[in-house]
Write a structure and sequence with these properties.
By secondary structure, the chain is α+β, with helices and mostly antiparallel strands. The chain is built from three helices and ten strands; from the N terminus they run H-E-E-E-E-E-H-E-E-E-E-E-H. The strands form three sheets. A five-stranded antiparallel beta sheet has the order 5-4-3-7-6. Strands 8-9-10 form a three-stranded antiparallel beta sheet. Strands 1-2 form a two-stranded antiparallel sheet. A hairpin with a 5-residue loop joins strand 8 and strand 9.
């Protein structure tokens, strides 16, 4: 990968123009574009969660995992499980690069990952801090390994 800087006086002082060039739009390019898009949205340290009677905020660093069952989202922290309605992919777009999707129904915070172990069905089990666990499906295992540097 080559990275270059080119000055462009026609841009405004707060403007950036980024071009990603590659032979094909493969997974590496897509991941880079997603990373740049999240960078553009800003690193929001708090996640607002709307429940039936109030709006709560969770610090991203304290969020261990997010799981969805039907349309019920569950946000797991050290002390609480906060539930609301929504979709998993919408939550993933609001989270920083420390989070990775590990199944159709789960996202984990890599900062809380303790180990990965083989499960009974051929899937992996992610052991997380505070005795939390998450299923890791084979479909998402390669991305998790890449994010771990394996």
């Amino acid at each position: 990968m080559q990275i270059r800087f080119q000055s462009d006086p026609s841009l405004g002082s707060d403007d950036l123009n980024i071009t990603v060039s590659a032979v094909t739009k493969d997974d590496r390019v897509i991941n880079l574009l997603n990373y740049l898009d999240k960078y553009n949205q800003g690193n929001n340290a708090l996640i607002p969660i709307k429940t039936e009677d109030r709006i709560l905020t969770i610090k991203q660093a304290e969020l261990i995992k997010v799981e969805v069952t039907k349309s019920i989202l569950s946000f797991y922290t050290k002390n609480d499980v906060i539930q609301t309605n929504g979709r998993l992919y919408q939550v993933l777009t609001r989270l920083n690069e420390n989070f990775v999707q590990v199944s159709k129904h789960g996202i984990i915070n890599l900062n809380h990952l303790v180990s990965l172990e083989a499960g009974f069905t051929g899937n992996m089990i992610a052991k997380l801090n505070f005795d939390q666990r998450a299923d890791v499906s084979r479909k998402y295992l390669s991305e998790l390994e890449r994010r771990l540097g394996l």
